[in-house]
Protein 1
Amino acid sequence: MRATHVHALYVHGTGRVRALEAHVKVAAMVAFVLAVVATPREAFWAFGIQAVLLIGAAAAARIPAGFLLRRLVVLIPFVLFALFLPLFGGGPRTQVFGFALSVEGLWGAWTILAKATLGVTASIVMAATTEVPDILLGLDRLRVPRLITAIAGFMIRYLDVTLGEMHRMRIAMMSRGYNPRWIWQNRALANSAGALFIRSYERGERVYQAMAARGYQGQMPVLSRELTRPGSWLQALAFPAFAWMAAVAAIIAT
Amino acid sequence: MHIPDGFINGATSLGAAVVAAGGLGTALRRGNRALKDRQIPLAGLVAAFVFALQMLNFPVAAGTSGHLLGGALAAVLLGPWMGVVVVSVVVIVQALLFADGGVSALGLNITNMGLLTALVGWGAFRLLMTLLPKRTAFVVGASIGAAWLSVVVSSLGFVAAYALGGSGQAPVGTVLGAMTGVHSLIGIGEGLITGAIVAAVLGVRPDLVYGAQKYELAASRRLMPGRMAIGGFVAAGLAVSLALVIFVAPLANSNPDGLERVARDQGFIATAEDSATAESPLADYSVTGVENDRTGTVVAGLIGTILVFLVGAGILMLVGRKRPQPKSEAGP
C-alpha cells in the first residue's frame, strides 16, 4: 500500500531533463507517444530508433534501470494478453518451433508489446523527472480545464491522507481485539469504509475552510511563474521530432 | 481494463478521443454550473477513493485484468456530470503519472471508465429510485445495483473497442465471455463497496449524497444489510455471472461480427485494410465453426468465472486472516 506513495514516482537528481519546464515536457511526451502509435508495425528499425531516443533521455536524466523496470510492471496484464494472441488469434497460421501460431496474432502481440512498452516508458521518464505539483501546473499552462487540475491536485493530496487514516483505523480496530475476516462480518468492514470516507471528508471540509480563510478562490497561487526559456521548447521537442521523423520515414517506406 | 498504447488501432482511438472530449467537455460545463466552490475538495476526495478502489486488480481468464471502477459511486455522491469528471481525472492522472493506460488510448479509457460507468451508473440509479420507495435502505440498494451494472457495461465497452480495432484478432466471443463473466463478479465487489460507503454517508451526512438530496432523508444508523442479505447478493451475482456466460457468450459470436460488418459497410473501420486477413473473421465465425466455438466459449467462460470467484474468495480469506483491512470486503 505504501509502495504507491505518489512521491515514489519522482527520482531526485539534477540535470538538463529535470531543468526543463513541466508543460514543455508533458507536450514532448505526448508528441512522442503519438509518433510511436503512428509508426507502422512492420517498421522494426523505427521502433528501434524510438527506443534508443527513450533510453538516451532516461540515461541523461540518470533514472536507474531497476526503477524503470519496476514501474513497467503495470504492463503485465497486457503482456499476458499479448502472449495469448498468437495461440488463439484467427487467420492463417505459421509454424514456430513446432507450434501453429496465428500470423495475425503474432503481429498483434508484437504491436502491443512494442507500442505499449515505448508509451509506458515515455510517461515513466516524464513522471520520474517532474515533481507532481509541477506536472499539475504544467497541465494548467497547457490550458487543461482548471476544474480538472484542481480536482487532480486535491486527489493526490488526499490519497496519502486517506491511506494513513485507513492504517490508523485498522490498528485501532485490532487493538480492541476485533479482527473481521469473513464476509458476514461485513458490517464492521463496511462501517470502517464509510467512517473512513466521512472522516476524510470532514477533514477535507476543515482544510477547505482553512484555505478559504487564507484567500483561496478555486486556484492555487503560483509563487514563481518563470517564463519559458526560449531554448526549452527547442530542446524538448527535438526528442519527439526525431521519433516523428522515424515514424514518417517508416510510413513512406511501407 | 486500462488500455495501453498500440492495443487498439489509431482510428478507433481517435474516434474514442472525440467521444471522450465531447463527453468530458459537456460534463465540465454542466458540472461546473452545479458545483459550489467547496465541493471541489469533495470531488478530490471521491477521486482519491476511486483511485484506491482501482488499485485492487483481478485477473481475467483471457489474460487481461479487471478492477473496481468507482464510477457509480462517484455519480451517486456527486451527480452524473461531476462523476464523469472525477473518474476521468483519475484516468488522466493514472496515464500521466502512473503510466497506467496509454496516453494515446486516453480517449478510450475515459470513454470506457469515465463516461460509461458514471452515466450508466447514474441512469440505473435514477431508474431504480423512480421504481423503489424513497427510503434510505432503497437508496443503498439502488446504488448497489447501479454499481454492478456500470461495471458490466464498461466491460462491454472494452469488448466493443476491441471488436472495432483490436490488435491480433483474438476471437471476440472469447474476449466477450471472459470480460463480462469476470466483470459481473467484480461488479459484486463494486456493489458491496459502493453500498457500504453510500450507507455510511447516508447514516451520518445524508446531505452529502447528491443522488438522495431531493428525498430529504433523515440521518439514521443501522443501515447495513445483514448476513443473509449479503449472502443473497453474492449468490445472486454469481448466478447472474454464470447465466451471462452460458446464455450471452454464445450469441457473442454473431454480435461483434455484425458490428464489424456494419463498420465495414459504413467504411469507418480502418482495420479492414490494416489487417491482412479482412475476410477471415467472417470465415472464422461461419456456420461450420459455430458449434465448436460456442461450446468452447461457454466452457472457457464458465471455468474462468468459477476460477475467478474461487480465487477472489481465497484472496479475501487470506487477506482477511493476515491483515484485516477496512477495505478487504473488496475480495469477491
Protein 2
Amino acid sequence: MTQNNRERLRQAQAAAAKQQRLNRIIGVGAGVLVVVLIGVFIGVLVQNQSHQAATSAAAVTPPNATSDGKAIVISPGVTKQGAPVVELFFDYQCPYCKLLETTYGGTLTSLAASGDIELHYRTMSFLDASLNNDASLRAGIAATCADTVGKYSEFHNEIYTEQPETEGEGYSDTALRDSIPAALGIIGNDLTTFQSCYDKQSTKGFVTTMGDLGIQDLQSINNQVSTPTVHVNGKDLPVSDIGQVQPDGLLDLIKQHA
Amino acid sequence: MSDSAAASPSRRLWPEWVTLAARLVLGVVVLVAGLLKVTQLDASIQSVRLYQILPWDVAAYVGTALPIIEIATGLLLITGTFTRISAVVGSLLMLAFIIGIASVWARGISIDCGCFSPGAAVDAGQTQYPLEILRDTGLLLCGVWTVCRPRSPFAVDNWLFAPVTELADHPESTTAEDKEPTR
C-alpha cells in the first residue's frame, strides 16, 4: 500500500515537473512573440508618425515644385512654347551625377533660363539605403529649403562642390546648414528662414515623396533605378549618348530625342 | 573508466562548439544589419523597393518589419533561445537575400550609382554582387548547420529545455526519464 502511495506521489511530482517545464517553454516563447509583435507595431507607428509630421503644419512645399510633387522647376515661367521637358534624376551622393553636373549642368540651367527647355530636377535619395547614411535625404532637404529663399539652383551646384571624394562619407550638417549658405551669400532673414527650414526638416516629406515618385518613374520607364538619368518628354535619353556630345551640342541632342 | 568517461563527452562536444560559433556569427551579422536599418525605416523600405520583386505597397510593410525581425532573430541566436526556430528564420532571411541579389544581378539592375559611360567605368554595384552572394551563402551555411545541430554551450535553451529531473532519492525514475526526448 505504502509502495503504491509513494509511486502515485512520484508520478504526481513527475507530472508537475513536466507541466512546469512546458509552462516555462510556452511562457518564454509567448514572451518573445509578444516583444517582436510590439516591436513591429512600434515600427509601423513611428513610420506613420514621421509621415504625419512630414505633412503637418511645419511641412513646407518648395515654391518651384511641380504640382504633382515630382520635381523642382528651374527658371519657371520663361519656357518657350513647345520646348522639350528635360528631367534630370540624380542623387547628391552619386559621383557620376557630379560629373554630369560639372560637364553639362551649366548648359542645362542656361538652356532653362533662355526658355529653350523646361528643366525639372528630380532629387532621389535611394543611395542612403546602400550607403547606410541619410546624407542624400539631408542634402535634398537643404536644397529644397534653399528654394524657399530663391537659391535652389545655386545651392544644388554648391552641394556637388562639397561632395566628398569617397562615396559614402556623406554631407555634414555643418556643410549643408552653414558653409554652403555662407558661400552663396545667404544672410540675414533668408539665412534664418533657410536654417529653420533645415533644422525642422520642413521639406522632408516633399523630398521623400519626390524620391519615391522618382523610383516609380525610373522603374516603369527605364526598368531600373540608377542615377544620373535624363528623360526628354518622358522618354529616356541615354546618359552615354550625352557623353558623346560637347555641351554646346546638348540642345540639338535633346531636340533629336524630343 | 574515468578516462573514457571524460573523453567521450568531449568528443561528442565539438559539433556543439561549431554550433556556438555558427549561431554567434549569424546572430551578430543579422543583429547589426537590423540595427543599421531600424533607425532609417524610409531607407529600408526604399531598398526593398529597389529590388523590384515585391509590389510597391507590400515593400513598405516588408521594409518596416524586416529590421525588427532581424534584430529579434539576431538576439535569439546570440543568446541561444529557441535556437532551431531562430536558425530557420535566419536561414530563410539569408536565402531571401541571396535570391534577391541573384535576381537583381540576372536582370542587370545596378542598385547603386548609375553608369555614366558604360564600359569605361567599372560599375561598383555589379562587381559587388558575387561577393555579397558569397557572404550570404556562408551565413546561410551557418544557419543550416545550426538548424541541424541546435545544441550548443552557453545557450538559454539548455535551461529552457532542460529535462525534467526527478528528486534525488528516486534514482530508478531518473533513468526512465533519460529515455524521454529532451528536445
Protein 3
Amino acid sequence: MAAELLNSLLAFQPDAPEVKDRREYDRHAREFIDTLHKCSQSLFLKGADTPQDVLNVLDPAVNSIAYAFTLRNRIQHAIDKNNTQTLKPGNALWNKLVQFLESFDPIQMRYAGVEYKKLVEYVELIARGVNTPAIAVSPIRSAMLRLDPTTGCFTTTHLNFIRLCLEGRAYAAALPILDNYIHSFPTNIQNSIRESSEYVVPCADSVTSGEFIHTKSGHSDKVTLAEIQEYYVLGAIAYIGARQFKNAHQILEHVLVIPAAGVANGLMLEAYKKWVLVDCLVNHTSVGNSSRFIVRRNYWLLSSIFTFASVASRQVPRTANPSSIKQIRAAAKAYDALADASSDFNNLPKLKSQVAAGRDIWAEVSDLCLFGSRSELAL
Amino acid sequence: MASDLADSPFFRRRKAKIVKDPPKFDLESYISNYDGFTRIDRLHHIGSHSPYLATDAYRAAIAEALQGKNVQLYLDLVAEYSQIAPDDPEALTDTRWAEEKTRKVQNEQDKLEHELKSYKNNLIKESIRMGNEDMGHFYYACGDWTNALKAYLRMREHCTSTKHLADMALRLVFVSIASKAWLTAQQNLMKVDSAQLKGDEKTKLDPLLSALAGLAHMSLGRFREAALSFINTSPAFLTAEPAAGIKWQREVLTGNDIAVYGGLCALASMDRTELQNQVLANNDFRNFLELEPHIRRAINLFCSSKYSACLEILESYRSDYLLDVFLSEVVGDIYSRIRTKSIVQYFIPFSCVTLDEMASKFQLTREHATIEDELEAMINDGTLNARIDLVDRLLISPPTNPRFNVHNDALSMAQRYEHTLQLRLTRLNMLAAGMEIRPERNSHQRENAPSSFGEGISAGLRGFGNKIGLQ
C-alpha cells in the first residue's frame, strides 16, 4: 500500500520533460493537486514511522506539493489524536516541518496555497503550544521569503508573523520582512479573467507576487483594512524596539495616508500618536549632551526625546485625508503639546510640565502599546 | 528737573516706555519742520516718552491744540500734563474754551450736514463730492478718524476725473496714517496707483507715493520692502507741491525722516554689496542722505566692515529714534536685526574668535546678559552657523564640506521622494482593493463588524473594476 501511495505522490515530477512548457506544468500541477485532494487522510498515514516512510523518501525541495500534503495530513492527524509528542520542537515532525519550510520549491507552493498557509499556521500553533512563540519566527520568515522573495504582497501571514515577533520581543528578526515595501494586496481576480489570460499561469515568471497570491490562491485569508493597519502599527513598534526611528516614522505614515471618508479609526489615532513622538526623534537637531532626564524606565521613548532637541516640522503626508487628521489631532492634543514643548530650546521646564500633565496618558499608552501585546491592540 | 519729572506719577506708570537718555535734537528746531496734526502728535509722543522734554513738548502741544477743533485731544493732553507738572498754569483745563469749542464744532457739523443734504437734493455731482470732502476735512480736524474715512469714501461715486479719484485716495491715506492704520494706508496707496494718472500728475505724485509706501511697509515690519521704497524715492519729494491739499513733506514726514527710515531699513535688510550698490551709489537717495550725515556714516562703516563703530553711532541715536512717532515702535526690531547681521558678517571670515573679542567688538545691549547668551540664541534660531566652546571661550565655525553636503542633500531628497511615492502607491493600492475607512452607521459596531465586512467584499469588486478600467 505504501508503494501505491508513493506512486501517486510521485506522479508529478517538476523536472520531467513533458512539463517543460509552462502551460503543461500548470495543467499537470492542477491535476495533481486535484487528485491529492481526493485522497483520504488515512492514505497519507500509511507507512508512517517506518524506514519506507514517504516523508523520508520524498525530497521537500523537489516533490514539494506531495510533501506538503503528506506533512499537513500527518500533523493534522497527530493533533486530532492528541499525539503531540512528535510535534514538539526537536522531534521528528517538527524537524521535518522546519526543514520543509526552509527548503520547499517556491514554484510548486504557488499552487498549494492552502497547504502552505496551513503549515505556517501549524508552526505558530506548535510554538505557542510549548509557550515559546519566538521559535516560530525564523521558520515562518524563511517560508515567507522563499515563497515570495519580495514579501510585498500582504497576507495574513505577515500579520501573524509580526505579532509573533513582538510577543517574543524579536524586533531585529522582524526587520527583513518589515523593510520590504508592501506593494500589493491579495486581489479578487475573477476566475473567468484568470483563466482567459492563458500565459499568466502561476508558475510563470511573474512581475509581482500579487499575481500568484490572490484571494483564491489560498495563501492568505481575506485581508481587512484593520489588519493592514495593525501590521503597520506593530511594525512601527518593532522598528522602535530596534531603535530605527526613521523607519518607524516612515512606516507609520502608511497608516496616516489610508483612504478615509473624513473619519478615522482607533489604529489611525494610535499611529498618529506614535508618529508625533517618533517625529521628535527623527527630525531633531542634536545639540551635544543636553540633559538626560528619565522619568521612569517605562517611558524610555519619551525620555529619549529629552536627549535630542527637536524641530517641530510635523508635516502630515499630503495624501492624508485632512478631515481625518483634524479629528485625530483633536483626540491627541497631549501628544502635540508634548512635541511642541520638546521643540523649544532652552525650555526644559515646559517639557517637564507637559510630561507631568500627561502622566496618566503615558502610563496607559506604555502599557497598551509600546509594550503591549497583540490582543490589547486588537481591541 | 528731568529726574524730578521722571518720578512723576505719569512716568512712573509707563516705566517701560520712557526714554531715559536725553535726546540729541533741539525740540524747537525739530518741531518747526512739521505742521498740522503730526505736529501735535509728535509733541505728544515726545512729551509722553521723554522726561527731559516733557514740559516743553506738552506746553507746545497744548498751545497747538487750543488752535484746533479737537477738544478731546486737548482734554487728554491737559490731563496727562497735570500728572507731570500739576503746578503749571497750563495744566489747568480751560473748561470755558472747551465748552465753547464743543458747541462751535457741533454747530459746524450741523451746518455741513445740512449743506450736504441740500447738495444731495440738487443732485449735482460735483457739489456732493465737495460737500463730502468738507465733511471729511471737518472730521479730520476733530480727530474723528473713522467718520473722516467714511466721509472721504463717500466721495468715490461722485468723482468724475482720475485726479479726483487720486485726491480722494490720498486723503484716505492721510487719515489712515494719522490713525496709524497701516494696512488701510497701504490699500489706499494702491488705489492711487491704480487711478491711472498720466504725465505731469503722475511725476508729481510718484515721489510721495514711494515715500508713503515705505512708511507703511516699515510700520508693518517689512523692512526690505520699506528700504526699497525709500531708496527709490526721488529727491523731487523735497520740493513737491501740495497734493490733495496736503503738504506731505511737512504734515507727514520730512526729507530727514526719509533718510533715517530708509537708511535704517536698508541696514536692517540688505547685505554689504546691496548697501554699496543700491544705497550709497544711488544718486536719488544721496540727496536725502546728505540731510542726515550720521546715517550715511553708519552705512559706510557697515560696508567697510567696521561693525562696532557702526553700531556705536546707531546706539548713540537710539533715544532720538525712540522719540520719533513712527520709528519708536520698530526701532528695537531694526537695531537688533542690524546687530545680528553685523555679528554674522563679522564672523564669516573667521574660523574661530574668542568670546572676549566678540564681547569687546559688540557692546552688549540690554536684551542679553552676556555675549554667550546672545550668540547661543542666534545659533539656536539658525542665523549664526557656529558653535560655542565655553572651556576655551571660543566661538568656532563648524567645518563644512560643501561636496559632502550636496551629496547628502541629494541622497536624502531621493529617499524622501521614494518614500512619498511609496505612500501614494500604498494609498492607490488600498483604493484599488476597496479599502477605506467609512463612517459607521451604527456607532456600537467597531471594525470587523459583519456589516462592514460585506461592504468590503462588494467594494473590492468595484475597486477591481476601476483598476481594469484604468489599464
Protein 4
Amino acid sequence: MIGITKVYPIGVVANDSASLSVRKGEIHAVAGENGAGKSTIMKVLYGAERAEGEIFLGGKKEEITSPKVANALGIGMVYQHFMLVKEFPAYQNIFFGIEETDRFGVLKKKEMLEKAEELCKTYDMPIDLDEPCGNMSVSNAQKVEILKVLARGADILILDEPTAVLTPQETEQLFRQLRLLKENGYTVIIITHKLKEIKELCDRITIMRAGKTVGTYNVAVISEAEISRLMVGRDVATEIPKKECRAGDVVLEVKGLSVKGKGEKLAVDHVSFRARKGEILCMAGVEGNGQREVVSAITGLSSAYSGDVLFEGKPIKKQRIKAIRNRGLVHIPEDRLKTGCDAGSSIRDNLISLDYDKNSVFGFINYKKLNARSLEQMRAYEVKGSLHHKMAMLSGGNMQKVIVARELENDPVLVVADQPTRGVDIGAIEAIHKKLVEIRDEGKAVILISADLSEVFRLSDRIIVFHEGKITAEISDVSSVDEIRLGRYMLGLETMEANDDET
Amino acid sequence: MKRKMLAFFASFLNTTATFFRKKETKDVIWETIRTLAMLLFSLLCAVVVIALASRDDPGAVKVFLTAPFEDGYTVSRILTESIPLMFTGSAVCLMSRAGQFNMFVEGGFFVGAFVSAVLAPELCTGTSSFLVPVLCILAGTVAAAALGYIPAKLKSGLGIDEFVSSLMMNYIVLWVVLYLLNNVWGDPEVTNATKYLEDFAKLPFLSRDNELSSGFIMAVAVAVLCALFLFKTKWGYEIRLTGNNREFASYSGIRTDRVVVYSQLIGSGLAGFGGGVYLLGNYYRFTWKTLPNYGFDGFVIAIMARNSPILVPFASLFLAYLRVGAQQMSLYTNVQHEVIYIIQGIIIILFGAKFLMDMSVKKKRGKEMTV
C-alpha cells in the first residue's frame, strides 16, 4: 500500500499521505496514538472507506471499492466491536452471507458444520459451533470473527485492537493461534498500542503519528521505549510516581449489593466493599462479570438493586443524580458515546454539563465565564479542536479527554473511573493516570474499573476481583501478585476468601 | 495619509481573508449555498409543475412568481401568511430539539384562537382597555399549554408515544371546540361562529390599508426569543442535551422527564399564543370548522429551518410567498392553488433527505471514534 490520503468530509485529515507495506506471511503491527489514522488506513485497505492513493497487492494495483472487493482479494477484517448476530449459532455467523444452501434455499447445516469444524481444528480454535454468539465469552466470539474471515478465504487478516478485551491467558491463546496462522502462510496485520504485545508477537511494525507514517521497523531491533517515543513524538514515563497510600475514612460503602441478571442468575451476587479516601480501589475482572451493574448502582444511574449503597453515609438510592453529583461523585463512564458525551453538541457544551445551572443568572448561562474556563480545560488536557467544534468531529482519544476534563475538574470527592483510558493513546493515558494519582494524593477516593491489567497494576492500591457477580479475591498488597495470578482470579480458576479488613 | 489608507485597506483585506478561510465560516457559507440551492430547486420544480398544468395559459408561471410582489397589499399578504407559520414553526423547533414530536401545535393553535375569540367579547362588556387582547391571548396560551400537558405527561409518566397521543388530542379538541362553539359560547344568531370582535379587542394594525396586523412583529420576536431561549438559557441547554442524547443528559444530572414535559408545555403554549395573535390580528370572529393546518405547516417550517428558530422567519416567508403566489395564480388563471401542495411535498422531501443524510453522516462519524 503506497501513499494513502484520506480526507474526511468535515475536513479533518485523518490519513495525510501515509504509506504502509506489508510482507506476505508476517505479523505486522500498526501502532500509533489515537487519531493517528491507524483505523482509517485499515478501513481503506478493507474497502470500508475510500481514499486517494494507490493500493498494490502482490505487485498489482487494485481498486478496493468495498469490503466485498476486499474479500474477493483475500483481505479480511476483524473489527474491535464484533459484527456478529447474537442470536445465531456460531457456524451460521461464520458462514453469514456465504451460506451454503440447496436448490430451495434451505441451509445445508451438516456441510457447514463440517467445514467449520475443520477450520476450528486446523487453527486450534476449539469452540461450540452450535452455541449462539450472544452467549459466548468475548474471546470465543473473537474466535468466531476470525473463523468468519478465514471461511471467506482471506489470506490477509486485519485485527483491530484484538487484545483490548482479553485476559492475559486469553491473549496468550490468541497469540498462539495467530502464530499458527502465520506458519500456514497467512499475513496478519494487527492494530494495537500495547508495546509488550508488539514485542512478543510481531515481526515488523509501522508507526503512525498524526496521519502520517513515521516509519516501518523490525521489531527485533527496536526497543519499547523507542517505539513509544516514535508514537508520541517525545519520551513517555512508563512509571507514575506515587506517594505511599494513606487510606482514610470510608467514602463509599456497598453492603450486600445484588442485581438481577438475565434469567435466574444474579448479575451481582451479594457484593460488599468499601472505598476509602486517599486510595485507588480497582475493580478488576473480565468484562461482563457484574462490574457494569455495580457501577450503575454506585453512581445512581440505576436503582434496580437490593442491598445498600452508602455515599458518605447516606444511601444513594433515594437521591437524584444531580444531588449525588453535587456532593462530589464524578463518573467517567465506560461508553463514552452513549453515556459520556453528546456527540451532536459542541465541545464547550459537553464541558459544562455538570454546572451550567450554577453558572446561570436568571436562567441565562454565563457563557463568557464558561467559555474561558472550557478553553483553559481544553488547553490543560490537550484537546485538539476549538470550543465550538462538534464533539462528533473529535477522535476517540480527544473525546475521552473532554469527558475526563469535565469530570475530574468538578471537585471530586469520589471518582468512579470506568475504563478511563480505553482506546486512548499513550500520551493521554499518561496524563489521565497522573491526574487520577494526583486526586488520590489529595485525599480523595478513586474507584477504577479496568480490564487492562497493566493499568490495574500501575495505579491501584487495592484490587477486588469480580467473577460471575462475586468478589473472588481482594488483594490489599498489590505487589504480592503478578499478572498471571490476577488473570487466574479473573477467570475464576482460583478464589481467595474475602477477608474483611477493618483497618 | 495615502499610505495609512493603503495599510488599513490591506489589513482589512487580510482579516476578511482569514475570516473566509476559517472552517466555521466556510461551513456556514457552504450551508447557506446548499440551502439556497435547494430552495431554488424546489422553486424550479414548482415552475415545471405549473408550466405543465397550464399549457393553455402561458402566463401562469409569471403570475405565480411575480404576483406576490405586485403591490403593497400582496406583499402584506405574504407577511400575514407567514405569521401563523412562524409561531408553529418555532414551537415545533423547540419541541423537536428536545426530541419530542408533539403534533398538538395544531390543536394548540386552534384552541388558542378559539379561547381568545370567545373571551374577547365577554371582556369587552364594560372595559375598553388595551389589556383586552393581552388577556385574551394569554388565556389562549394557557389553555393550549394546559391541554398540551396531557400528551407530555403521558409521555414522561407512562412512556406513551407523544406523537400518537397528541395527534388524537387534536381531534378531541376539534370536536369539543365545535360543540362549544355551536351550543354554548357561540353567537346564537348564526351557526359555527363566535360573536364579532370589538375594534379595541383586536391587535393594532401596522398598516390598516394593507390589513397587516402587529402580530407579524410578535411572530418574528417569538422566533428570536426562541433562539435565545434555546442557545442562551439553561433550560434551552437542557432541552438540546436531552434531545441529542437523553442518557448523557440524565447521567449529567438533568431531570429529563421534566425536560420532556416543559418543552412540550412551552411548545403547545407558543402554538396557542400564535392562534390568539393570528385570530385577534386578522379575523373579526372565529369561524373555523376544521383544523386550520398551521400546526402541520409548522413541521414543514421546522424541517426547512433545520430546527433553528432563527431561520424560522426566513422559511416562513418563503413558504408564504409560494402560497400567495399560488393564490394569485388561481385568481388570474385557471391553475388551481392546490399545486402548492406538490411544491410543499418536494420541499419536505429535499430538506428531509438532507436532514437524514446529515444524521447518518453524524452516526457514521460517531462509530469511527472507537480506536
